[in-house]
Every structure is written in C-alpha cells, then in structure tokens.
Amino acid sequence: MARGTVAVMAEVPVELFKAALGRFASGVTVLTVRDDLDDHGITVTAFASASLQPPLVLASVAASSYLHEVFLRQDLWAATILAAGQRSLATRFSEVGRPSARLLLADLPHRRGSLSDGLIIEGGLAAMECRTEQRVEVGDHTLLVASVLDVTYVAERGAPLLHYTGRYTTSVTPPASGPRRHTGDPWPA
C-alpha cells in the first residue's frame, strides 16, 4: 500500500464501537459559554490537553447538541473538571432541554470568569478559561482547539468524576480475569 493511503475496512457497528470506547475511563468536564441571550453549559467527556507550550486543550462537542451552534459563534468559554462528588452537576448539564446554566447553578457556588465571561463552577478539581483558536469538524462532532487563557483554580486534593461504560462513577474496578496476557508493555501489571 502506498504511503498516505488508507485501506477501506468493513464498517464498524456503532454499538460495538461505543462498547469498545466505553471501556476507556474518561474525566468529566462542564463547559460553559455566554452568548448575547444567556449562559449555556454542556457536559463533555472528550476533553484533553493538546499542548503544553502554548497551553492548548481540546473539547469535543456533538454537532447535534443545541450548544454546537453557540460554540461556533462564541470563542470564549470556561471549563470545570468535575470532582467525584459532582455527579449531579454532570447530569444537570447533560439533560436534553435543560434550562440556562445560571439556573442550573443557582444553588451552587460559582462565579463568572473575568476573561471568558463563562460560569466557573466551584468545588471541581480544576477550572480554566479558554479561547477557541480552531474548530475541526470530525464526523458527527466538532473539536474545539483552544488556548488556555487562565487556570482559575486547581484543587490540592480530590478524586475525579469518571465516565465509564456509559455511566458516571468515581472509581473503576476491572473485572476479575485470568492470567495477564503479555501485551509488550514493559511495565508490570
């Protein structure tokens, strides 16, 4: 096969693909953004560091999300990495037809970011203010590549809220299995 060409494989069933990636535990983050009308927020489980110098993050937003259009228009937003005790927040910001982010946070400590105007949720593991530098359409999502303008806080302690096999959890205990197969990993299990 010539360099740069991709072999066409049989289509992977969506449910099998979801099941496979569901075995990858990921952190849970709430993104908040303000537009001319209101404050909005969404729970994302695809959020990652993209670069240390300059500091860049990636966030993946479903094109079917009502917030997708807002993130296409607004460059400034805030991200809060949720702690283990914030499962209800993750659920609030993932519900279909949810109200304004201000209403969702009315009973919880939060503040407005001075650089992004996004709502920063207190009590998470970390929060940052970001500016989208690039939007990349990939399949049914858009990747937001964003500069980190400020890290507003980092908790000294705490466990993360995780998303694993389609559920929020605070720890992942692998199922009992037989002897470990050699995977080429030089580190012991």
What are its keywords?
single chain, mainly beta, Pnp Oxidase, Chain A, seven-stranded antiparallel β-sheet, three-stranded antiparallel β-sheet, 38% strand, disordered C terminus
Q: Would you kindly provide a written description of the structure presented here, covering whatever features stand out?
A:
With 189 residues, the protein is mainly beta. The protein has four helices and twelve strands. The protein has helices at residues 14-22, 66-73, 87-92, 101-104; strands at residues 26-27, 29-34, 39-44, 47-51, 56-62, 76-81, 110-112, 119-121, 126-138, 141-154, 162-164, 167-169. A seven-stranded antiparallel β-sheet has the order 3-2-6-9-10-5-4. Strand 9 and strand 10 form a beta hairpin. Residues 175-189 have low confidence and may be disordered.
Oligomer designation: single chain
Trace the largest sheet across and list its strands.
3-2-6-9-10-5-4
Order of helices and strands: HEEEEEHEHHEEEEEE
Residue runs with pLDDT of under 50 for 5 or more positions: 175-189
Short synopsis of the structure:
This protein has 189 residues and is mainly β. The chain has helices at residues 14-22, 66-73, 87-92, 101-104; strands spanning 26-27, 29-34, 39-44, 47-51, 56-62, 76-81, 110-112, 119-121, 126-138, 141-154, 162-164, 167-169. It is built from four helices and twelve strands, in the order H-E-E-E-E-E-H-E-H-H-E-E-E-E-E-E.
